[in-house]
Write a structure and sequence with these properties.
CATH superfamily of the largest domain: FAD/NAD(P)-binding domain
Strand content: 15-25%
Mean pLDDT: 96
Shape: elongated
Low-confidence stretches: none
CATH class of the largest domain: Alpha Beta
CATH topology of the largest domain: FAD/NAD(P)-binding domain
């Protein structure tokens, strides 16, 4: 059994680490959360700037399918702490949630700071201690955890450890992936960390990138191989990003990595049938410039017209010389050649991490008895829409419960 004499170290003060700390504190052990940054939940606060998307309201079987090949490894954790439980947890913290039109779930405050403050107050009341500006650097010869602190190196003994150091996206917020070497040196298999929910580079012309940087493409449909979806994207100085791009980022990333490029097709007017579009494009142009004609006849914004012109030049075609039938086809299948993947430091999340084969059902690293792992340190990825946070919360709670069971077994 566990007791307050048992000390558990949680390394990482993000959603997974804090959830592990809560589970551990409820189990009656002494908990200290260590983090290299000066405060907790920095990436959570960043995620909340545009509205904190906590989870999704779709049925659990459909929800779980979003994790693709990682689904079997995450299923038990998420079933033990499903979206409904996460919403109830928020409610108990005084932050009720609501379901948006897309099925995504948000706190009514629509930001992270009130939720994080309430959570930290509850953890403090439960006796959880925090040690900030403590960068974990491994173990000493006696198995104690080593931390680099403003006062020098500190060695900490713990009955169990939960690692929740995140992946490698947005490293300035604390998750820099530096832990990979520490675990690899212990023989733990680590899949390389890669950008996920990321943008891609495109060799735009100087004219196009200068004029349309930051402009959104709304109401579009994207297709790549057998995959297609509706959404939005944004032109960037170096390429393209946005929700619809992120949803296809895993497939696009693998294609670019394997072949050095990938061709994405964009339908600018997916809701207009081909016959109707041909009819509109067959109208007399009169004295209008071709750009104005396209803007009015096909109801395309300037950025979409610019994209058409950019793609036509790239394929060696003349947009104005295309017959209406060909032009209609081109409008709803604009090719964009992706030449590279945006840096992981700018990705929303990261793929790769500790291979699930290295973990037991309690999320303990088999080669490191008493050491558990959770969150983005594990080898899974998911689209935006609440799936990232849900799995981080759920695996954090699972790792915390696993550590309690480990301590209880070890006390006999």
């Amino acid at each position: 059994m566990t007791s307050p004499d048992n000390h558990v170290a949680v390394i990482g003060a993000g959603p997974a680490g804090l959830m592990a700390a809560e589970a551990l504190a409820h189990g009656g052990v002494r908990v200290t959360v260590y983090d290299a940054m000066p405060s907790a939940g920095r990436k959570l606060l960043m995620a909340g700037r545009g509205g904190l998307n906590l989870t999704h309201s779709e049925p659990l079987p459909q929800f779980m399918a979003r994790y693709r090949e990682a689904m079997p490894n995450l299923q038990s954790a998420i079933e033990a702490f499903p979206p409904e439980a996460l919403r109830a947890w928020c409610e108990a913290l005084g932050e009720p949630t609501f379901v948006g039109t897309s099925g995504r779930v948000f706190p009514k405050a629509f930001k992270a700071s009130p939720l994080l403050r309430a959570w930290l107050r509850r953890l403090d009341a439960a006796g959880v201690r925090f040690a900030f500006r403590h960068r974990w650097t491994g173990w000493d010869a006696e198995g104690r955890l080593l931390f680099q602190t403003p006062g020098g190196t500190s060695a900490v003994a713990a009955d169990a450890t939960v690692l929740a150091l995140g992946g490698a996206s947005w490293p300035r917020l604390g998750s820099d992936g530096g832990w990979t070497t520490l675990l690899a040196d212990k023989g733990v298999e680590i899949a390389p960390l890669r950008p996920a929910n990321c943008g891609f580079t495109v060799a735009w012309s100087d004219v196009f990138r200068t004029r349309f940087e930051g402009q959104p493409l709304k109401g579009i449909a994207l297709s790549f191989g057998p995959h297609s979806l509706r959404g939005e994207a944004t032109i960037t100085l170096a390429g393209i990003e946005g929700g619809a791009i992120y949803a296809l980022s895993a497939e696009l990333r693998e294609a670019v990595t394997a072949k050095g490029e990938a061709v994405l097709h964009v339908a600018l007017r997916p809701d207009v049938g081909r016959a109707e579009l041909v009819k509109r494009l067959s109208a007399a142009r009169g004295k209008q410039s071709f750009s104005n004609f396209l803007r009015k006849a096909a109801q395309l914004p300037p950025v979409a017209v610019g994209l058409l012109q950019e793609a036509a030049i790239g394929t060696g075609q003349s947009l104005s010389a295309m017959p209406p039938q060909r032009l209609a086809e081109f409008i709803n299948a604009v090719p964009i050649e992706l030449t590279g993947v945006a840096p992981i430091a700018r990705a929303i999340s990261s793929a790769g991490g500790i291979a699930f084969e290295e973990l037991d059902p309690d999320f303990m690293i088999r080669k490191l008895p008493g050491v558990f792992a959770a969150g983005e340190m594990l080898d899974w990825e998911a689209p935006t829409g609440g799936y990232l946070l849900q799995a981080s919360f759920a695996t954090g709670a699972a790792a915390g419960r696993g550590a309690l069971r480990w301590i209880a077994r070890s006390s006999f």
